[in-house]
Design a protein that fits this description.
By secondary structure, this protein is an all-alpha fold. It has helices spanning 7-19, 21-30, 35-61, 67-92, 101-105. The protein contains five helices and no strands. It starts with 6 loop residues before the first helix and ends in a 5-residue tail after the last helix.
Length: 110
């Protein structure tokens, strides 16, 4: 039988994903020993870094008429979908990596 994750861990994991860098810091300071919450906090950190990258790329792409805007919006929608998937996964009670993001989050050792 699989180990049941406490609801407290689920809430902190969800907060980490929902609040981005602020949520990551909350979990890092309050629940550093909670493996489940930290699993999603690390993914939240990667999502935050990706959002910054998309923002910078968006500024650069503004100089390319129409195509730049389309690329920026596509990247933004992908980021939004990954963020929403993070919410769902964090509340599921299972450590399920967010697509694309999960493999980079594993690189962080906190």
């Amino acid at each position: 039988m699989a180990k049941q994750v406490e609801s407290d861990s689920k809430v902190f994991a969800w907060l980490a994903v929902f609040l981005g860098i602020i949520g990551f810091l909350i979990v890092l300071l309050a629940k550093k020993d909670d493996k489940y919450a930290m699993f999603y906090a690390k993914q939240s950190l990667v999502l935050f870094i990706a959002a910054i990258i998309v923002w910078v790329v968006g500024i650069i792409l503004m100089f390319i008429p129409i195509i730049g805007l389309i690329i920026y919006w596509v990247l933004s929608v992908i980021l939004l979908v990954l963020w929403l998937m993070g919410w769902i996964f964090a509340l599921s009670g299972k450590e399920k990596p967010i697509p694309i993001v999960g493999k980079y989050a594993e690189m962080f050792k906190f």
